[in-house]
Write a structure and sequence with these properties.
alpha/beta; globular; 5 helices; five-stranded mixed β-sheet
């Protein structure tokens, strides 16, 4: 088995599951992410919740991970995920996020800024602010 490539953190912020990622993801990191998301959802998920994916670098999964991530998106939707927002750095990341959630019936949106994603999630009824998220995000590099 290969070492994991790609780093992620998961934390509930009110009724939003924050997933912050850095680096490109190999299959091993994707499998680890899958296990941890399911654990978070099983332990805490409210009946109606959102996913906020914040991609801190040019994060892309390896092609083999696509089917796993699509299944994970379907699992989350079945467990009450109604909205998903991604803060991405590129249109390629947008396309990957849309492909992962292509079978989702919930509202899925891509953003270039965290502020815009927060505004949208708040408009959907979620309690969230930048101050809520800052403790869980890596500091911006100069």
């Amino acid at each position: 088995m290969l070492d994991e490539h790609g780093i992620f953190s998961l934390v509930w912020v009110n009724d939003v599951l924050l997933c912050a990622t850095t680096g490109d993801f190999n299959l091993e990191a994707t499998l680890s992410l899958e296990r941890q998301v399911k654990k978070c959802v099983e332990q805490r998920a409210p009946t109606h919740w959102a996913l906020l994916s914040v991609n801190m670098t040019g994060t892309l999964p390896v092609p083999e991970a696509g089917a796993r991530l699509q299944a994970l998106a379907a699992y989350c939707e079945g467990k009450g995920r109604r909205h998903a927002a991604a803060v991405n750095l590129s249109s390629v990341q947008d396309q990957v996020f849309e492909q992962i959630h292509r079978d989702s019936e919930g509202n899925i949106r891509n953003f270039r800024s965290l502020d815009a994603a927060i505004v949208w999630l708040r408009s959907q009824g979620y309690r969230l602010s930048l101050a809520d998220l800052q403790p869980y995000l890596p500091a911006a590099e100069d």
